[in-house]
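[Help] Beginner question about ligand-bound structures

Sorry if this is basic. My supervisor gave me a protein sequence and a SMILES string for adenosine-5'-triphosphate and asked me to "get the holo structure". I don't really know what that means in practice or what format the answer should be in. Inputs are pasted below exactly as I got them.
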Amino acid sequence: MRLEIKNVSKKYGRNKYGLKDFSIDIEKGILGLLGPNGAGKSTLLKMIATASKPTEGVIILNKNNIIKDANYMRKQLGFLPQDFGVYPNLNAFEFLQYIAALKGIADQNIKLKIEQLLYGLNLLDAAKKPIGSYSGGMKQRIGIAQTLLNDPKVVIFDEPTVGLDPEERVRFRNLISDLSQECIVILSSHIVSDIDTIADQVAIMKNGSLLSYDHQEKLIQLVDQKVFEVFIPKEQLVNFKNNNIVVSTARTEQKIAVRYISEIPIKGSIAQTPNLEDAYLYLTRMN
Ligand SMILES: Nc1ncnc2c1ncn2[C@@H]1O[C@H](COP(=O)(O)OP(=O)(O)OP(=O)(O)O)[C@@H](O)[C@H]1O
Ligand SMILES: [Mg+2]
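Answer (accepted):
No worries, everyone starts somewhere. Holo just means with the ligand present. The predicted complex, written as structure tokens, is below.
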């Protein structure tokens, strides 16, 4: 499996780009796509899923230009859009049968497949109730289930863990890890902890451009020796934030513990082991 995005742009208005001259080569495995709101994650994923077309550039899956031959992608695609809508009057089982029919899945075992997915996503108990009565997290899990109906080779999840509680996040993570090793799986988020335990590769984007793309460990090396903790008086925090990249703060009785990124630590700082969140903030704040 090989997905090549070559010099892709998406222009939304006269001077408004959702994505600008964006290139990335993706191979099998799990790719985490990180970026702040408006970075262009959904714009990119929709084009890969052939739900929208680039204004410039090409997208190639296994040597097939999917802008010209969208069906080549669609046949092997599972896609959870960010704004996934469901039909409130259908129950989970009916809904998945309906999507299977739309996708033209002529699998005799589709009922069994649906049951397995409902089980895997902890929805069996609710399968006979109308989706309109589901919680947000349950609806999201129905959206996840429909991506996997056709045993896809390319699976795209745009913000899959929104609305999921911690237990369901773990369940989702396990489900993704069980997907065939031969698949390309892309998941987007703006929350680092959603992807850091699951993604092999991480791409960080901002303002329609790719800031960095590498193994997690390589990205973390960017902030090696640059992450510190220091205790400062509360009234200094605003000023401190203006002059440093602050990752997090924790209140103590007297002072505030600040985790921050800097080339040169201020006096009294203690070096910290860097993580992906540090690298993410470093890259997105510096650019
Ligand atoms: N249909 C559209 N028309 C005009 N501008 C758009 C459209 N869709 C997206 N944009 C703009 O393109 C940019 C990228 O948007 P996109 O939705 O791809 O970002 P995102 O990374 O998915 O953000 P989020 O984390 O909020 O989902 C934003 O500036 C957005 O306002
Ligand atoms: Mg989005």
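A couple of things worth pointing out: The CA atoms of residues 21 and 208 lie 8 Å apart. The chain has a mean pLDDT of 94. Feel free to follow up in the thread.
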